TrEMBL record:
GO biological process: one example: amino acid biosynthetic process
Name of the featured protein: shikimate dehydrogenase (NADP(+))
UniProt signal peptide: none
EC number: 1.1.1.25
C-alpha cells in the first residue's frame, strides 16, 4: 500500500518539502506520496494526522511544540529541546524527531576551523541548534532583540545578551536564526552592532532560504563568505526521509534525488 506523508504548518503553501520528498520517492522507486496540509489549530495535529491516514509528517511554523506534545515516543534529542519537526507512525504510535538541528550541523560542516559562534535570535530554531552546537563543543553566544526568550538559554548556561547590553567581540561564524528578512527587509540586529562584528567574521550564515536577506547582503558588502538556509533545508529533509522509510536508504542515496528540488 502506498505510504502517504505531508507537511503540516501555517502557512505551508510556500514549502519545498513536497517537491523534495516526491522527487526522492520517484527516484528511489518507493511507493510514497507527499502533500501539504494547512493546520491552523496545532492542538488538532494528532487528530488530523490519524484522520488523514498518514505514515509520517514534517512540521513547520508554528506547530513544532504542538508536534512535540502529540508524540507517544520521542527521540532523546527531540525530548531535550522540546521541538519536533518529523513524526512517523510505527504500529499506531507516533514517534517524534528533530532533524532541523542535525541538518544545520551538517550544513556548517564545511567551516572546519570555526569555534566561536554568535547566534542572532532565540526562537525555536535557535533552541535546538544551540543545543547541538554546544554538544559538538562550539563556543556559543546568543543575542536577541527581546529579553524574554533569553531566559531559558541563560538557564542552559549560554552567554546571552540583548541589543542593549551586548559588547561586540570576534566570532568565527555569525548566524541569523531570527525571522528578520523572511517576509520583510529588516536586519536581525541594529546595523551598528552588525557593522562591529561582521567584518571580522570568517563567514555569515542565514537559516532563511530562497532569497538573499538583508543580513547576507550586508555580509557580502564586507566580502564575507555567506551561506543561506538551503543546505539546512535539504539535510533536515534527508534525515526526515531516513526516518520515514525506516532507514532503508543511505544519506547519499537520498541526497542524489532530493537535491534536484534545489535546481533553478
Ligand atoms: P520563532 O518565531 O520561534 O523565533 C523568532 C526569533 O526571531 C525570535 O528570537 C525573535 O526575537 C526574532 N525576530 C523576529 N523578528 C525580528 C526582527 N525584525 N528583528 C530582530 N529579531 C527578530 O522562529 P523560528 O525559530 O521557528 O524560525 C526562525 C527562522 O528559521 C525563520 O526564518 C525560519 O524560516 C527559519 N528556519 C529555517 C529552516 C531551514 O530548513 N532552512 C528550518 C527551520 C526554521 P524576539 O524574541 O525579540 O521576538
Amino acid at each position: 500500500m502506498r505510504d502517504i506523508f505531508a507537511i503540516f504548518g501555517d502557512p505551508v503553501s510556500h514549502s519545498k518539502s513536497p517537491l523534495m520528498h516526491n522527487l526522492t520517492f520517484r527516484g528511489l522507486e518507493y511507493d510514497g506520496c507527499y502533500g501539504r496540509y494547512r493546520l491552523i489549530d496545532g492542538e488538532r495535529l494528532k487528530e488530523k494526522f490519524l484522520q488523514l491516514g498518514l505514515k509520517g509528517i514534517n512540521i513547520t511554523v508554528p506547530h513544532k511544540e504542538h508536534a512535540y506534545r502529540a508524540c507517544d515516543t520521542l527521540d532523546p534529542f527531540a525530548m531535550r529541546v522540546g521541538a519536533v519537526n518529523t513524526i512517523v507512525d510505527r504500529g499506531g504510535r507516533l514517534h517524534g524527531y528533530n532533524t532541523d538541528a542535525p541538518g544545520f550541523l551538517r550544513a556548517i560542516s564545511e567551516y572546519t576551523d570555526a569555534k566561536d559562534i554568535l547566534l542572532l535570535g532565540a526562537g525555536g530554531t535557535a533552541k535546538s541548534i544551540s543545543a547541538i552546537l554546544s554538544d559538538e563543543g562550539y563556543d556559543i553566544t546568543i543575542v536577541n532583540r527581546g529579553s524574554e526568550r533569553l531566559k531559558s538559554f541563560r538557564d542552559d548556561g549560554f552567554k546571552v545578551y540583548t541589543f542593549d547590553d551586548f559588547v561586540p567581540s570576534s566570532y568565527d561564524l555569525i548566524i541569523n536564526m531570527t525571522s528578520a528578512g523572511l517576509q520583510d527587509e529588516s536586519l536581525p540586529a541594529p546595523k551598528e552592532i552588525l557593522e562591529a562584528i561582521v567584518p571580522s567574521a570568517k563567514a555569515c550564515v542565514d537559516v532563511i532560504y530562497g532569497k538573499e536577506t538583508p543580513f547576507l547582503r550586508l555580509a557580502k558588502s564586507h566580502n564575507r563568505p555567506t551561506k543561506d538556509g538551503s543546505d539546512m533545508l535539504l539535510y533536515q529533509g534527508i534525515i526526515a526521509f531516513q526516518h520515514f522509510t525506516d532507514y532503508r536508504y543511505s544519506f547519499e542515496e537520498i541526497e542524489r534525488y532530493m537535491k534536484r528540488a534545489f535546481v533553478d
